[in-house]
Amino acid sequence: MRRLATIALTILSLAVTACVPAKLERLVEKRRAPHTAVETDEDLARAFDGASDEAATRCLGRWIEEQYAKGVTAAAVQVGSHRVHFHPGGEGIFAPGYFDKLECVDHFRVVGLKDHHIDGVGAVMTGHRENKHTEPVEQWYPPEAITRAVTAVAVPGAPRGGIREVEIRLYNRMKTESVVLAAKRQTLAADFTVPFASLLANTRSLARSGLTSVLQQDTGKKTGFYMTEEYDPHRTPLIMIHGLFSTPLAWAELTNELRADPAIRQRYQIWHYLYPTNAPPLYSARIMRLQLDEFRRFLDPEGDDPAMQRTVVVAHSMGGLLAKSLVVDPQEAFWNPIFTLPLAKMNLTKDERAMMKEAFYWKPRKHVDRIIFCSTPFAGSTWAASWVGSFGKLLVARSHGFTDFFEEIERKNPGMWQPAYNSTSDGTVNSILSLKPKQRSMEIFRQLPVVPTTATHVIKGQRDLFVSPESADIAGAESTLTVPSGHGSFHHPQAIAEIKRILALPAAH
Questions:
Q1: What does the longest C-alpha to C-alpha distance in the chain come to?
Q2: For residues 438, 441, 444 and 449, what is the CA-based torsion angle, rounded to 10 degrees?
Q3: 150 by DSSP, 3-state: which?
């Protein structure tokens, strides 16, 4: 029976993740046409003098690659009649030592994602740095790697004694759209997909964790928020929250599309949230809210950055339940149906009391301006009530954070549960069984209204086998779109266009 249940859940996970874009294959280097040494030297000299034609730009990129292969330093390098140095770094410009490796994007092709690039001036490159957590902010970057979209530009200075000074600037292309060169504003060339794909190429273990986070107690993946670019205090956070059997990799296609849109790129910065999907969604939601508060305090200790005043969320499936918890005010809705004792009379430590308050009496996060719910089971999922869901209690890993906490609370407060909740701390409550229709806590949660300061939007799949159209609806939604897809509604081109439309809207309040 256990083997049958394993097979069933594996098939289920494959069905759920079948909507995820094709796996990104490892980047493949393109063949390059050979060039003579004379051509290379002449073209490089022209690049140092400000030429921006294809040959000069290609040679500039190759020269920068060679400097990184040798171990780039801040010292100037003599190249013929040019003395070349790198800009030390500043707003929108990377310091030369920031990357371990800097490569031209034309060495690679991407399989599985549309390659978005822009013509313009400069050598288009991808910067790669191992995440060693050497800087505090790196705890919020993906552990697999730190990658950036870079455009390198050579800025010539006035010649002195036959020697011309040249400065190489490594522009952060996600922040800088254009620069003034030779007294003329020019668009920087760019490729937004290859740097992102070079990160994805290192995430195979993360991809496997979508299933293992349900079946195992520890997958080695740290729960939390992750940025794929530098924090910008002026751009609105766009948070993406994945669903059951999934990881932030589910958002690869949408992230790639949004990064390539200039209006969205200039207005938003994308954050992903990773969490194990074995625990009940309301428990995972409590953890997420606290981690979001911590993340925001880290980025903006004073709380006055323009970016911190407004947040937009796009969430899929069970992730939508986590997202909704950000914008409801439960007050007494949960406590009396679950507990026989008032909170004030329970035997709790100071930390336990604070955790119980955040778990049952939390406050809405007022900075959340809009939420886009994609195939979210507000009224549960019928498959969770089927024989597959019944087998779930045999296979879904026990969430120690959830069960151990309530075991300790129950030990000090015997008889605290209302009859319907006597099994809460016995290890059988998990994410799958929590999604059964009419499950008491989730039914209470479904009926909680979204605060009026947050606008909501619904996207759902016409052929969704896991979440019915009725279950995916939420009262008071500003817009609802049904696309001809399955459970992965947000992958459909119509859904991507709708998300872009919503992101272009002004603040809801």
A1: 90
A2: -120
A3: strand
Q: What is the length of the chain?
A: 509
Give the number of other CB atoms < 10 A from CB of residue 308: 17
Helices vs strands, H then E, count in the chain: 16, 20
Q: How far is CA 245 from CA 17, 275, 277, 280, 442, in A?
A: 7, 10, 7, 13, 19
- Of the candidates 222, 313, 212, 220, the one whose C-alpha atom is nearest the C-alpha of residue 268 is 313
Interval 309-354: pLDDT, tens? 999 999 999 999 999 999 999 999 999 999 999 999 999 999 999 9
Class of the 203-503 domain?
A: alpha beta
Strand extents, DSSP E, 335-443: 368-374
**Tens-place pLDDT, residues 459-502:** 999 999 999 999 999 999 999 999 999 999 999 999 999 999 99
Q: If residue 503 lies in a helix (H) or strand (E), which one and from where to where?
A: helix 493-503
Alpha-carbon distance 371 to 314, whole Å? 6
Report helix angle 281-299 to 440-447, nearest 10.
50
User: How many angstroms separate the CA atoms of 11 and 17, rounded?
Assistant: 10
- Tell me the torsion sign for CA atoms 94, 100, 104, 105: negative
Q: Is 445 helix (H, G, I), strand (E, B) or coil?
A: helix
What DSSP line would sit under 465-496, residue for residue? SSS-TTTT--TT-SEEEEES-SS-GGGSHHHH
Residue carrying the six token digits 């766009």: 238
Q: What is the number of other CB atoms lying within 10 angstroms of the CB of residue 479?
A: 14
Amino acid code (one letter) for 186: Q
Residue 188 has what DSSP assignment? B
Token pair, residue 334, equals: 């949960």
Domain ranges of the chain: 28-197, 203-503
286-to-268, 292, 324, 427 alpha-carbon distances in Å = 25, 10, 11, 18
